[in-house]
Amino acid sequence: METFKISELAKEFDITTRSIRFYEDVGLLHPGRNGNTRIYKRRDKIRLKLILRGKRLGFSLAEIRELFELYDTNQSHAQLHEMLRIIDDKQAMLQRQIRDIDAVMQELELAKARCEQALNNTETQ
């Protein structure tokens, strides 16, 4: 079975070992131990990748934990509905953010065009 040291995961994901230990402290990762050395399995590596991706997408650690718990248990009808609700909420939030980003980008383009026009006007005078 493939295993990883904390330093290997930190280097691969470009995060600190402290961050990885924090995710362990809050119950998102569950490495084995060999004395004082943490031994991470492939499952932990995948979870770490999902944690970091979830954070980039705006998921809270509580939401990530909830998704992990739903995944880890025998998924009942109610759990699957809850997972769908969480996904729908996150998709709606991300769509709002996309619209907001598009609006800001348009405003920045207009401001940039005005600045360039003003520079052109002052250079021709």
TrEMBL record:
UniProt xrefs under CDD domains: HTH_GnyR
Pfam families: MerR, MerR-DNA-bind
Annotated keywords: Coiled coil, DNA-binding, Transcription, Transcription regulation
Coiled-coil residue spans: 94-125
Residues of the HTH merR-type domain: 3-70
Keyword NAD assigned: no
InterPro entries cross-referenced by the UniProt entry: DNA-bd_dom_put_sf, MerR-type_HTH_dom, MerR_fam, Tscrpt_reg_MerR_DNA-bd
A GO molecular function held by the record: DNA binding
Full protein name: MerR family DNA-binding transcriptional regulator
Lineage: Bacteria, Pseudomonadati, Pseudomonadota, Gammaproteobacteria, Vibrionales
Record keyword DNA-binding present: yes
